[in-house]
Amino acid sequence: MSTITYLLLQIVMIILLAPLVNGVIGKIKALTQKRTGAPVLQMYFDLHKLMQKSAVVSDVSSWIFRVTPYIVFGTAVVAAMLVPVSVRILPDSIPGDMIMLFYILALGRFFICLAALDTGSAFGGMGSSREVMISSLIEPSVIVVIFTLGLISKSTSVFIIMETMAQRGSSFIGPVTILLFLAMLMILIAETSRIPIDDPATHLELTMVHEAMILEYSGRHLALMEFGAVIKQMMLMTLMVNIFLPLESFVTVAGFPGVALSLLIYLGKMLVLTVIIALIEVNTVKVRFFSIPNLAALSFILAFLGFMQYFVLGRS
Amino acid sequence: MGLVLWIAPLIAVALSQFAKKARTLHAISIGVSLVMLVLAGYCTHAVMVAGELTYTIFNGLFLIDSLSIIILDIVTVIYFLTSIYAIGYLQEEVRHGKISSEKLRLYYMLMYVFLFAMVVALTVSNIGIIWVAIEATTLASAFLVGFQNDHNSLEAAWKYIIICSVGIAITLVGIIFLHLSSVDVIQSGDALKWNVLLSEAKHLDEPVLRFAFIFILIGFGTKAGLAPMHTWLPDAHSQAPSPISALLSGVLLNSAMYAIIRCLTIVNKNSGDSQFAGRLMIGFGLLSVLTAAIFILSQKDYKRLLAYSSIEHMGIIALAMGLFTPLSIFAGLLHMMNHSLTKSMLFLASGNILQKYNAREISKIQGLLKTLPITGTVFLLGLLAISGTPPFSIFGSEVNVFISVFNADQAGLGIVLILLLAIIFAGIAATLFRVFFGSADAGQVQPGETNLPGALAICVLLIAIVVTGLYLPDGLKDLFIAARQIVLGG
Amino acid sequence: MEHYLDLLSVLMLLSAIMLVSHKRIRSYIRTFRLQAILIAVIAGFMGFESLMTEGSIDILVICVIIIALKVVIIPMLLHKTFANVEDVVEKDFYLNIPILILMSCVLVVFSYFTLSGISGLASGHVNLQVVNAFSVILIGFFFMISRKKAIGQIIGYLVMENGIFVTAIFSTHGMPFIVDIGIFIDMITAVLIMGVMVVQINEKFDSININNLRNLRG
Question: Maximum CA pair distance of chain C?
Fold first, then answer.
């Protein structure tokens, strides 16, 4: 029973609400630029429009090109199922842990990179090579963050990590967690292809990474790819807010009101993180591609220092 | 009365601000140095009688004992003779148009600040204030080193201020840890006072204290010219105007070494023997002598050669202090005095040579004994003295250092040391002895001493090092023995 | 309370690493200012604590002096000095930024292992704070030696002084008051003198690249 509740909740909160994040970010950007901008629900309309259109597939591409959108969407949905939106509603048993989470996403990324090469266009190959470089640079940081969180919680299961961090109280204000939060923020930006790593709204050859890889897609394939990308973004954001900003101490009632309150708090936290990402997007520029190793090194150092601070503090 | 030591240089700064003519500035300089000399004599007498001199003002900040009074006396004597020399030197520089009268005033004012900082470093009981004062000497002398304002002196001044400031910052880390080691034992009112630290030395926290000593040694060692932190020294001492070089080499290096000795005393009393700290100092000392030996062999600039010789002698002092036997400590303290007198004499003489020949390279100087008879003789004898030839005083203290090394069963160390000193002697002789002979080109340089007060000053120094090389007056000897007692732990 | 001090020490370490990752003179001075603000906050915290427990306002006075000197005056001085100096956009360091950042991380690990060997330092919170502060000293030193322009050396020296001050505050609750005042006077004088010298170097050598100062060798 609780498994079905859990799955329904995850679908509603993460999958159905995912395109809203892009809408909110777009709205904030527009407001800071003193224009009205697209409505917040714009991405729903876009996805709906794309599903109506027919998909154009190149003759020279192989089965990888046709299969990839489904794989990307599938891995994103599976990953979304692994990250609870609230520690109060859980299935009977959650399979997998953080490591499996990141490598499911890696599976999706693998197929995107192959599919981009598949059509033989110059943009695709360029996008693939850049994407592979960025993800390999950001990976050490991911590993160190996962392992530090695992050390703190004595397990790499997502649920146990969230629960441990919730029990630690005001854990956001602490030397270890603030470093891990900043490292995770950079990981988030790198994985979701946002400024300052990659501009999601550009179609200039010089600046495309993720956009270059999905350039050849159209119709329902494009809809699935874009939907997969926002689900992935939503999932990573959920991971971040629930681990680093649990705020469970505000939920004092048990039972149904408690769950509702916890979900409301979750929505509030997501809004805060969305605003942070939007502000970063507004205030910084996309960095030169060869400056991305600088950011990746900074992220790695933050994660490593978080690990070291934990170590020095005597595992407290 | 002793507090006038602090007030006199400050009054001199104020007076120099209002002086209108160059003669007034020179007169103020001689006046202040005479006052400091007299005051130092008074303090020496007080210390010889009572063992230490202290006032209760500022919570007992002013404190002189036998160790500090020796260094203070060296400072005031050399400062006095240097001021006499500086009158002639600066008049000659003004005559050649290299220094304007505004710059003259700046020179003297910076000198007084420099003197003030150095005297404060030697007469306070708080190690933190010693730190502040030694950093202040770096800052005061930075512009003095760069006084000529050409490419090389600017480079030397920049290197000097950066390397010495970083070294001093490292010392501050050491002092913080020194404070940490004493925090449980000493009340906050007495914090960082070396007399209190010495009496409570056994109760200080040993690992923290050792950690602190490493930083203090490296930091103050930078200022004292120990290798490998010596890299600023050849540049700064060679590019500075000669009276400043004499002061930096003869006096400032001693003050930094004095600070190291204070901390060495505390660490050795804490650990009971001299294993840890002594080995470090012997290591740095040996490295300094080795570095000096290597670089002296290839020098082309005579003032730079003298600077490397300073590094060598500071290495010998560090080695003697590190050995920590009664004889070696006595020899080390004596060596501090002898080196100061000899080195300042050499630098002042080299200033005369620079003014006469207008060249820094050894190859451009010849026929020195004919062009500058007094300076040339003094320079020649001084080079013999600095290499350790009898009957000059450096020979005496160096021989005592060797005896103490061999007495302490460190034959290997002794043999290496003798070898290095022989190499240095050979290097100095081979490089510099050619400047004295040969014919001076007529028309290029006019023979004759141009700096008569300077010639007088260096002759006084020459007589001093001959006299102390042959005979150490009883009062002085007692002072050294009392200082040795303090270093050994009181 | 200890929690906030831990956090502040970590943020200070972070600001030191950020400093290493910057490329432009303006960014150096701005990051130094940020670090000075963090230090002032630390001093303020410790000052209030000492005011509550012992009733002494020494550390609070020092906090005010830090705000006046390091947050306001010194960055202003540095900006003015370097406005008059030529600003050639050239690569200011020999190694690239990721390696510099990794080396700072190595320095943090090194300082941890060095300081953990000393049994006199309490373990846990004080150890963490002192390790962070000591690492800032080492990173400031590293910054000094990794930059080619003269401004790098001045900022490195100032960051070292920041680190030293914080080490003192964390391990011994501050040096004696008169010593602290002396340290500040020395530091501001040093910055003034270094600033004047940089202007002179710029006039004589037409650049502030330290590698031009190589005449005196051997």
Answer: 57
